[in-house]
Amino acid sequence: MLRISFIYLLFSFVCMAEIIQVHDFVEVDYTGKLPDGSVFDTTSADVARKSAIVSEKTSYGSLVICVGERQILPGIDAQLVGKEVGREYMMNLSAEQAFGKRDIKKMKIVPINNFREHNLLPQPGLQVDVDGEIGFVTSVSGGRVIVNFNHPLAGKDVVYSVMVKRKVTDVKEKIEYYISSTFRLKKEAVKVQVDVAGGKAMVDVPFMLPAQFFDAMSKRLQDIVGLKDVVIVGKQVAQKAAV
Known about the structure:
By secondary structure, this protein is of the alpha+beta class. It folds into three domains: about 1-100 and about 155-170, Chitinase A, domain 3 (Roll), CATH 3.10.50.40; about 105-150, Beta Barrel (Thrombin, subunit H), CATH 2.40.10.330; about 170-243, Alpha-Beta Plaits. About 25% of the residues lie in helices and about 30% in strands. The chain is built from six helices and twelve strands. The protein has helices at about 1-15, 45-50, 75-80, 110-115, 170-180, 210-225, and strands spanning about 25-35, 40, 65, 90-95, 105-110, 125-130, 135-140, 145-150, 160-170, 195, 200-205, 230-235. Strands 1, 2, 3, 4 and 9 form a five-stranded antiparallel sheet that branches. Strand 1 and strand 2 form a beta hairpin.
């Protein structure tokens, strides 16, 4: 009798566990390490400080993502499916699952005159933005500069510890997080306004994009959050004049 009761309790516990599925919104904390144990990425400001990688440009804190929408590294995104909420997982990611393989085609030659036009002195290690693509100078020879546009961790296997804190169920919150994540908006700086009623969501975003882009995102959100209609309205925000 005791054994039967134990099995029943165990079965009940398993049934009660929240299992993550594609298009679930989950809040996570994570820390990424290289095989030698050195930390290169984290949502924790404390871990960043202890690992001497803290940056003023980084907003630390838990991250909410929509599983299956590639809002996090592909390997983490795929491995979250089937996991339980409230547990921490160690995820070993190959280079392909993390920051990609090293691609020789992303090593490009840039004329040194391009740097001189912007009053820049190219030297190894310098980070540059060429037509919206971020790269690092690897060598300078004569009038040619070699710029590597691969991710700094391309070709490397990594390990992530991922804590799944909760599953987001509020539709308004889901839409806010989805748009903020898609456009990499800082919630404390840019406010997305969402009103949900009668199976429909009205979304105001503080920027303008072509109507067809908003239409495509509206249809995507309808499928993900299960609403009959999602209307996204963009507006131009006045910029403060420089003093």
